[in-house]
Amino acid sequence: MHRRQFLSASAAAVAGSSLLLPRPASASPLIKGQAEHVISIWLGGGMAAMDTFDPKRQGDPAQKIPGAYYSDIETAVPGVRLCEHLKAMAPLMDRVTAVRTVHHDIIDEHAAATNFMHTGRQISGTVVYPSLGSIVAHERGAAGENALPYVLIGYPNVTRGPGFLGARYNYLYLTDTSRGPAGLSRPSSVSSRQHERRQSILSSLRQLQDPRQAQSLQDYEEAIDLSLKLSGPAFNRSFNLDEEPGDLRNRYGGEFGQRCLLARRLVERGVRFIEVSHNMNFLNGTGWDTHNSGILQQHALIEELDMAVSSLMIDLEQKRLLDKTLIVITTEFGRPPEFDGGGGRGHQGSAFTCVLAGGGLNHQGAYGETDELAKKIVDRPVSVPDFFATIHAALGIDYSKYLYDGDRPVPVTDGGQPIAPLFS
User: Fold this and answer.
1) 353 alpha-carbon distance from chain centroid
2) What gap in Å lies between CA 54 and CA 82, rounded to an integer?
3) Exposed e or buried b per residue across 366-383, where buried means at least 16 C-beta atoms within 10 angstroms of its C-beta
4) Got the DSSP string for 269-307?
């Protein structure tokens, strides 16, 4: 987001109000965790659960026998097994819960499912719902004085946006980890002296303003102050990955790994919610959308995910940040056990896996059970609102409250309930 775009968007923002309606006397006590940050890893395209975190018996695409594409391995949690290409994650599964029974009914449209997995709701013609990241930004704000609450390391998309909460709760994004977001650094054509003169003029103009100015002008003033803070060395230093030891950067791996390393640095700077996109399509030509021949190099995606996330977990743990940082791995839907005509897989929303790690939760390795082919849920289904409520609860956010689009009440999680065993 360029400086001008950031300022103009923020100037137009009007903060969405929130209100906690009275809870019914019969309601269960709220569950609250102690996590302070979220690193949300997005696997666009649809990760196949039976080929990753919910392995089943092996199939054969040539013979059209449904099943997993790979063998499985043991983990640190007895009875919990993973795909053979998740070797680095396997010994860390005592700090992880693969939620194997997430489900929804959107299977034929990537965009609609992506929206659902970012907002917790299907697309509406009357309400533009805020994303999970924007709600967290609204409820918790930034964790540091000179930081934004919400950063996207990936391509901008309306599904990640603030919806009716307003632009104040939007994200700052970047796509290249070799430098910070465009527009935050002072242009080389502007000298320090010119910059100081401009700030002096701005200060003089502010003194002439009516303190009873409109809310939109107050939002604009806040945007200016935040922009000036972010353009300074304190926040921009977060994006200088060269400060990290070479061996650590190598352990994280390629571009996706560097995105995860940057996410850790942003946590240290006080960013509350960071989404990291894993969209390295060049590895297999299709990313996680493994139709037809895209499945042939699916293992390269899995291995890259394994390397980066395991390094992130160990790095956070060594810095005593893992219990404060909830790592979330999501995807828009899963994939069926059957193979398509080209040997790949179609779409499946009836049962798929999302992953939680760290965040101070009582991890179990896996939660929920699917049938012998990961096609149907056998035990402990988890709706998307339930999964979102679990994230909110981990952060100490009241998942039962209402936000307001004008005078229209909108429940934060559409009635979701946290996965209680993770908090016991």
Assistant:
1) 15
2) 6
3) bbbebeebbbebeeeebb
4) HT-SEEEEE---GGGTSSTT---GGGGGGHHHHHHHHHH
CB atoms within 10 A of CB 211: 5
| Token duo for residue 360 | 């101070």
pLDDT tens digits for 125-160?
889 999 999 999 999 999 988 889 999 999 889 999
> What token pair was written down for 142?
């930034």
Q: What is the pLDDT of residues 244-261, one digit of tens each?
A: 999 999 999 999 999 999
> What gap in Å lies between CA 297 and CA 268, rounded to an integer?
35
Q: 332 CB contacts (<8 Å, ≥6 apart)?
A: 44, 45, 46, 106, 110, 113, 114, 116, 117
Question: What is the SS3 assignment for 383?
Answer: strand
* CB-based contact 300:55 (threshold 8 Å): no
Phi/psi at 76 (nearest 5 deg)? -70, -15
Take residue 11 and report the two structure tokens written for it.
């100037």
Alpha helices in 330-380 (DSSP H): none
Mean of the per-residue pLDDT values of the chain: 87
3-state secondary structure of 91: helix
